[in-house]
Amino acid sequence: MSVSYTIDVTRLHAAIRLVMRGFGSEEAEVEAITANLIEANLTGHDSHGIGMLPRYVEAYQQRGLVPNQHVRTVLDAGSMLRLDGGAGFGQVIGYEAMQLGIARALQHGSCIVALGNSHHLGRIGAWAELATKSGLVSLHFVNVMARSIVAPYGGADARFGTNPFAAGIPVTGRMPVILDFATSMMAQGKTRVAFNKGELVPPDCLLDDHGRPTREPRFGVNPPFGALLAFGAHKGYGLALLCELLGGALAAGMTQHSEDVAQRRILNGMLTVLIDPAALADRAAFEHETLAFIDWVKASPAREGFDSVRIAGEPEREMLAHRTAHGVPVDATTWSEILDAAGRLGVDRAEVSAAADVS
Question: Which domain holds residue 57?
Answer without folding.
Answer: 1-69+328-359
